[in-house]
Specification:
The protein is α+β, with helices and mostly antiparallel strands. The chain is built from 3 helices and 4 strands; from the N terminus they run ββαααββ. It is elongated.
């Protein structure tokens, strides 16, 4: 990131959490999704910092690679980690106990 503009590596590497069951609010007859704290938004896998620098050079160019040349980890400014997508998986079971799986993907807006 750089005072507004940013380079997003949304197709590079990702942290994937375990699937969690949605809570059901009987009173409201609705499902309730998890809420996410700051540390949830910043979870990421271990990566070689040089691999990140090469990915930035390839995907975003020299301007961006100069900005991160001295960082030691992916969360060190001007680099950062943020949630980019949330998935809901729905399992539908018919009267014959056949299971159909559907996944809904929510893309999280990036930047300011």
């Amino acid at each position: 990131m750089n005072e507004g503009p940013h380079c997003d590596l949304t197709e590079w590497k990702h942290y994937y959490s375990d699937w969690n069951k949605l809570a059901f609010d009987v009173k409201e007859n609705t499902f309730v999704s998890d809420s996410y704290e700051r540390e949830d938004w910043e979870k990421f896998i271990e990566v070689d910092i040089n691999e990140l620098k090469k990915a930035v050079e390839k995907e975003c160019g020299g301007y961006w690679s100069k900005h991160i040349k001295d960082i030691k980890n992916v969360k060190e400014y001007p680099s950062g980690v943020s949630m980019s997508k949330i998935f809901l998986k729905i399992l539908l079971i018919d009267k014959n106990d056949s299971v159909i799986e559907k996944i809904i993907e929510f893309e999280i807006p990036m930047g300011c």
